[in-house]
Amino acid sequence: MTNPSGRRRVVRVGTAAVAMVLVAEAAVWLLRPRERPIEPAPVSEGQYFTQAQIDRGRTYGDGQLWLFLAVLGAQGAVLVTLALGRPAAVRRGLERLGARPVLGAAAAGAGLSVALGVAALPASIAAHQRAVDYGISTQSFGSWLADVGKSAAIGAALSAAGGALLIALVRRFSRRWWLPGTVAVGAIAVVFVWLAPVVLAPLFNKFTPLPAGSKARAQVLRLARHAGVDVGQVYRVNASRRVRSLNAYVDGIGSTRRVVLYDNLLRRTNRPELRSIVAHELGHVKHDDVPRGLAFLILVTPLGLLFTSELGRALVWRTGVNPRGPAALPAYMLGLAIAALVLGVPGNQLSRHVEASADTFALRLTHDPKALIQVQRRLALSSVANPDPPGIVTALIGTHPSTIDRIGAAVAYERETATAPSH
Length: 423
What we know:
The protein is mostly helical. The protein has one domain (4-419). 71% of the residues lie in helices and 4% in strands. It is built from 14 helices and four strands. It has helices spanning 4-31, 51-83, 88-96, 101-133, 141-173, 178-199, 215-227, 263-268, 271-286, 289-319, 329-366, 369-382, 391-397, 403-419; strands spanning 207-209, 233-237, 248-251, 258-262. Strands 1-2-4-3 form a four-stranded mixed β-sheet. Helix 4 runs antiparallel to helix 5 and helix 10 (289-319) runs antiparallel to helix 11.
């Protein structure tokens, strides 16, 4: 017969998982932009891309997707193996760290982060090499590996702090550790978003404020005034040392808020295209999309951590390790990884709403749908993207609407304005 205690644990894990997903979907509904994005007109990818470009994007995208799944599989295998208390030598080592539980958890967290990075390395190397072969990446293997090393060191330090904090909370609050954990995650996320642009980002790229007399800066500020947006600082980043793709983004909050433009973008786009891209980024500022993302995180964290707690306790009960020591950390980390993976789906759903809303903002600010269409073509070609990926792929991992949907929105706006009565 099934152990009644085991059945109860399974029910608690399942209930927490369902509640986590329901709350995340409610958060998407609550936080989606109030301004309804333009409904895309039906358009064919063959109208904007040659068959060779479409095939190239599909081939590259499919290969990178399989490598992404390989990374998930390799890291998942490591987490599941360790969470089940295997191999025995690793379990004994983690149990010995229990002599000083919080410091031991810091060491275990750093070690686990490194192990996951090593597990991902073969597929990550293959993904980088494919990006080089397809002309997307300009980075040598040595330079890429140096960046991987920096990321691994930062990840290990953050995981060490996170592991120590988690076990300290478990020891202090037992089953209710997820309540103060929610407060800690929210505070850490706000500080991280505030500091990352000035502390972490410069470790990987050089950021230069656009000169006061530059045409690009004048164009950004002119658009910002027209939109009624306090843009903060405008930076140029030397992205060309890594990639040939075109991009721009909004980062930071408060005193660190900024619009960042790739140097590739500034060199290779004409004035209407740059206006369209800048207007899109101004839409993110106008709509407070960085704080919106933080709000989503804060709303989904309580039940995400509750799920982590219930799954972690169930695994710890099964393996018999001390639930208050470093040996329990892999079980909790597996719970966190599953929660992050599941919550990423509604998170991406919200992101697509946000990006579509920013496109709509750009169209209404610039009144130039042709520029947005050309921008989407160039973005897709420079990153060798599939213009119209399968719906299931977009739904699960797409942070932006597909290229064809974004072009379709511009076409719909063009038709809407063409038929609108003039005043």
